[in-house]
Amino acid sequence: MPFVFLDEIATADVAFEAWGETIEEMFISSAEATMNVMVADLEKIERREKREIEIGSDAIDMLLFNLLQEIIFFKDAEQLLLRIEDANIVYENGLYFVRATGWGEQISPERHQLIVDVKAVTLHRFKVEHTPRGWETLIILDI
Amino acid sequence: MTIISKLKKISDTVWEIPASYKEGMRVPARIYATEKLVMEMDEGVVDQVTNVATLPGIQKYALCMPDGHWGYGFPIGGVAAMDEQSGVISPGGIGFDVNCGMRLVLTSLTYDEVKEHIKKLVDRLSQRVPAGVGSSGSIKLSHDEFRTLVEKGARWCVQNGFGWEEDLERTEEFGQMSGADASKISQKAVERGYKQIGTLGSGNHYLEIQVTRRENIFDAELAEAFGLSIPDQVVIMFHCGSRGFGHQVATDYLQLFLKVMETKYGIRVLDRELACAPFLSPEGQDYFAAMKCAINMSFANRQVILHRIREVFSEVFRRDPADLGLRQVYDVAHNTAKLETHTIDGRQKRLLVHRKGATRAFAPGAEGLPALYRKSGQPVIIGGSMETGSYLLAGVGSGDQTFFSTAHGSGRTMSRRQAKRMFRGKTLQQDMEHRGIYVRTASWSGLAEEAGAAYKNIDEVVQATEEAGISKRVARFVPVGNVKG
């Protein structure tokens, strides 16, 4: 799993670090970590419904912020648990765009081991970094 | 590492961090806590409360209540009053779960009368008050109807048959924050929230059946004024908020403020989560009107849950809810910003008081209190962990030192993952049942995260608020049944 939950930050909430060799991989890792806060075993989410997500932002970190917000949105608005399977990020005319495909299914409290709801992505200590190993992020989710 | 070396002791319950601690602090920061609670506080509290002290327009002190801990933007337990004219409004000073709050409901039943029905009550309540990840409720509204609801709050519910007229006067803002404007909320916010009326959510949200024993009444006169009048009286307490709707409103405006804060208003903050706008700016006023919609959604959410509680008790006891004495004591909000008049250095001033994980605690005689609590002061409902107990407090005159604010709960000391490593949900449930607390949960690991040992000692927290003179104890409740979100 290209993410790790951190214990010592933001007592009542959940903090994690996620990474990837490419920025797209890091985005997907972050989406997996976010979903893993709500669902214990991600493999239990079946590929039944597909959603194409397209978002633009003038900053790369806010692009990630918005992608994660989108996953949280689908969970509340459509009771849909989505896993991001691929993502493509481009930079055009001063804006970053991500096109991502999410697969998943309706929440089933019987089948999915649900844990806690994620309310929001916070900006506290939020960072996206390009490092010699690739891309890394630190995110605190509001629980 | 303890934070105590950074604090100057003002009294046994007040600790100060001078404005020289960090560049940009406009006022000192003050932490309200006993020495023991201070020793348990994390580094994040100092960092965050001093960040708050840098915000434009802040008055007197950036405050942290005794249950304070590391949050995002403000610490949890953070209170800051901004000058209406020169101050800012910040979603990070309110929280994503706008008007997350507590309701306390009386019954005229004793524990002996309820004992044999606890399981049935808890089981039925867990069916009628949906909880857990992404849960939706049974009230079907169109988007337009939802927009009306968020402007009218709990009043909409009462008008549509979900409650009694008297519930409104027993709710902060009488259940409807005026000035809520649904044209200031996004379609996304509506879509996230319109199916969630009457749902508990998850995390630290719960609905509990509790008992107050005679030895746990600290002030008999106030207890009587708040409706606690029989021995071993059963009450119901619950904690929940504005669900996905409020979370989206906060997220929308956080992003808007980030865009305009520096470029348009020249404000720099030390944590992006403190993104803000001048209160009187168009963006600040839009957020204020949208945030009020989220406050109202939360009042409506708790109003419908109260209605479900009345239905369930009525079915189980085959008696009318009024006959069972199912009257609300009060509904308090935790995560809000409200315009209030306070006295600063002898002068009355209009202030925007941000309370994040803190409860308003108006003193006797305060404007804004309903006639029935004018003499007693505001009832303050403090939810403890599900294993230990909860409190009813009252606002007091000396609460002016914290802009009439006090604690909101016991406050976590252990992270969610630590708690999960130490406790297993199923074992915990069995242990609690042995101790006379029957629990139904939407999630076993969610239950483990809420273990009592993950929280500060609630008795210590409320004692600190009393010693500091920001609220006083009225009664303590012990849990006997719990629906865990």
Description:
The complex is a heterodimer of chains A (143) and B (485). Chain A has two helices and eight strands; from the N terminus they run E-E-H-E-H-E-E-E-E-E. Chain A is α+β, with helices and mostly antiparallel strands and 143 residues long. Chain A has a single domain (3-142), classed as Archease, Possible Chaperone, Chain: A, domain 1 (3-Layer(bab) Sandwich), CATH 3.55.10. In chain A, strands 1, 2, 6, 7 and 8 form a five-stranded antiparallel β-sheet that branches. A three-stranded antiparallel β-sheet of chain A has the order 3-5-4. In chain A, a hairpin with a 7-residue loop joins strand 1 (3-6) and strand 2 (14-20). In chain A, helix 1 (23-38) runs parallel beside helix 2 (60-77). Chain A is globular, with a radius of gyration of 14 Å. The two termini of chain A are 22 Å apart. Chain B has 15 helices and 19 strands. Chain B has helices at 35-40, 43-52, 111-114, 118-128, 143-152, 154-159, 165-169, 187-193, 220-225, 243-261, 282-317, 416-422, 425-434, 444-449, 458-468; strands spanning 8-11, 14-17, 29-32, 62-72, 74-83, 88-89, 101-110, 206-212, 233-240, 277-278, 328-333, 336-344, 347-356, 359-360, 379-382, 390-394, 405-406, 438-441, 472-484. Chain B is globular and about 60 Å long. Chain B has one domain: Alpha-Beta Complex (tRNA-splicing ligase RtcB). With 485 residues, chain B is α+β, with helices and mostly antiparallel strands. The relative contact order of chain B is 0.18. The A-B interface holds A 5, 7-14, 38-40, 62, 69, 72-73, 75-77, 79, 81, 107, 109, 113-117, 119-126, 140, 142-143 and B 42, 44, 69-73, 76, 92, 95-97, 132-134, 136, 188, 191-193, 196, 201-204, 243-244, 247-248, 250-251, 254-255, 258, 271-273, 275, 412-418, 442-446, 449.
Q: Gist?
A:
The complex is a heterodimer of chains A (143) and B (485). Chain A is of the alpha+beta class.
